[in-house]
Amino acid sequence: METLRIVYTKQKYMRYLSHLELMKLFERVFRFQKLPLKFSEGFNPHPKMTFAAPLSVGFSSQAEIMEVQLNERIDLEHVLQMKFPDGIQIIKAKYVDSKKALMASIDFSEYMIRIDFGASVSEYPFEERAESFLNQEAIHYEKKTKKGTMKTVNALELVKSFSVIFKEENELILRATLASNSSMGSLNPELLANLFLNFCKNEKEIEQIEVERINLFMTVDKKLVSLYEL
What we know:
This is DUF2344 domain-containing protein. This protein is an alpha+beta fold.
């Protein structure tokens, strides 16, 4: 049995696919390409595929990661040339022998967050406020637990890095590396953007917030390493 690890994009209209729809799409393409898929056992066998971290519907990505089990190796060039609907493209592929599950390996996700306003925000000192935002003792918000109860979370404990990388007229772009781990917890990048704008006392109407994931990381010797390198 061979484990094939794939890095792919999820952009344009494909960002509106749910995780289940995405899994079905990959299965259909793999079957059409006649990949020697390894199937689970039981009454309802299905291809043995795992995805690193389900992406929220509406979020796009430059580098999602998944693995599929094959009965035998195929040429990687064939994998890279497989055709998906516009918005999904395989950009890297390799065979791995890692025994650690992808989901259990993720520690952080890196995002670009684009905010469009209904009026100019060029006079707002967002760059200077970003440092003050991170220097607070805590940034609390309420989160619903799996049991349905509410708990208070300190967002700062889930932020690895945060900065303003672009501001012009009606547009602001933030970059953030956030916890994405079952033990540490996770922070929604759209929520972080709203917490920051509230801190800045922004009064301009927000027309839309677009989020794009640009990398997935694990922690190795206290350093962030791309999950693809696991």
